[in-house]
Amino acid sequence: MSLWVLILAGAAGGLGAAARMLLDGNISALAGRAFPFGTLAVNISGAFLLGVLAGAALSNDAYSVAGTGAIGGFTTFSTWAFESHRLGEDGQLRRGVVNLAASLLLGVGAAWSGRKLGGTL
User: Fold this and answer.
1) Among 33, 48, 80, 118, who pairs with 56 as Cys (CB 3.0-4.6 Å)?
2) C-alpha–C-alpha distance, residues 42 and 110, integer Å
3) Alpha-carbon distance values, 37 to 1, 100, 109, 111, 121 (Å)
4) pLDDT of residue 120
5) Cα dist. 103→2, 25, 99, 100 in Å?
6) Both ends of the chain: CA-CA distance in Å?
């Protein structure tokens, strides 16, 4: 990997993180914070976009910048796990399990759909 790819991936990661904050914040403002809909939307859309990139068969450098950088900065496994755990700790075990299951099922489905779409590009 070249230094330029590393720099571009870092910059793309910063943009992805900013996009995550905007999308999560807007959805949470609309839907409330009783359930982490913002994080769910971020991770499902990120799985779809990563699937599109994988299906499009980008070069290694382009995939590193777009996939690892931008989408990696955009999506968030740690927040998803923390929010699910927090729901359980707060006595909302059902919501925590729903968050875990919905994220997994919808995320895999979104990645599969994105890969199919990306393969047509």
Assistant:
1) 118
2) 12
3) 36, 12, 17, 18, 30
4) 95
5) 34, 18, 6, 5
6) 25
User: Alpha carbon of 42 to those of 22, 37, 75, 94: distances in Å?
Assistant: 10, 9, 6, 21
Distance CA 57, CA 29 (A): 36
d(CA 55, CA 63): 11
Phi, psi of 2, rounded to the nearest 5 degrees: -85, 165
Residue 1 has pLDDT above 90, yes or no: no
pLDDT digits (tens, 9 = 90+) for 66-114: 999 999 999 999 999 999 999 999 999 999 999 999 999 999 999 999 9
Nearest to 44 by CA among 95, 112, 91, 93: 112
